[in-house]
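Entry:
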Amino acid sequence: MRVSLRTGIGLLAATGTAVALLTNSPTVDLIPSAAAAPTVAISDIKSTLNELQKVADANGGTRRNGSAGYTASADYIAKTATAAGLTVTKVPFNFQGTSGVNVIADLPGGDENDVTMFGAHLDSVPAGAGLTDNASGSAAVMAVAIAASKSSAKPKGHLRFAWWDAEETGLRGSLGYLADTKTDKTKIKRYLNFDMVGQFKDTKTVWGLYGKGATEKAAFVEALKAKGFTTAPEAIAENRSDQASFERAGIPTAGLAGHLDGADGKPGPGGTAGCYHQACDKLGRVDPAAVEVAANAAATALYKLAG
């Protein structure tokens, strides 16, 4: 998750912006019944987390945009998604002076005029490996993509998965993708985003919910409620992750966040100081069980929304 363009990191740290209190869940018309969502394998989550930590370790401790660490991260994601049976494209971009490569993976089949996307940023900040922010989200997207590819149940709509470059420099990867004339935005009907889902919040029962799509948010609420979880508005995530790029393009969005590990001015799990955008954001900061909960909620929401 990038630093807020509105407040800047200094003001954020000084104010200790708090997560908003629980409010009533979004209410929308009933979503039509859909194909049964697959169950995500925690082993797939752990594999991606482990590999992205190894990539950082082998490349100066970072996976930032433009680095060898990011290139190796993108190569791993592309190779893994291809092996799982998805159609993978590395999509270069140059947006507002920043160049990079997004990884896009399409699940074969479904109505390509009705695309549901699920993405997370793959890059880290220069200071660290970025395992919470945001290898956790990247691992969740990969696990859902693998589960969807293995499942015999397919939604009516088309599923597309994305791993974004240069989120930490101002959402440049997702903005560049949407600005590309090769991207048919009219076919993208909704976008789900994961950023920092690697830790449960302190209560371990509440997930942060953000985005501008009422139907999309309701799908997350329903999926989590079925597993005994509730949601609260995550105001700190608004405008600061890749869903904001899709909102600017008029595409409905929703996203989940766990404990923000210092980004909200609160201590991390175990009473330690947060590791937000620091070198200590390593594998040990991530709870795979939290990622598993979020990933399964995403799988359920995706299949509900895509029909």
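The first strand starts at residue 87 and ends at 95.
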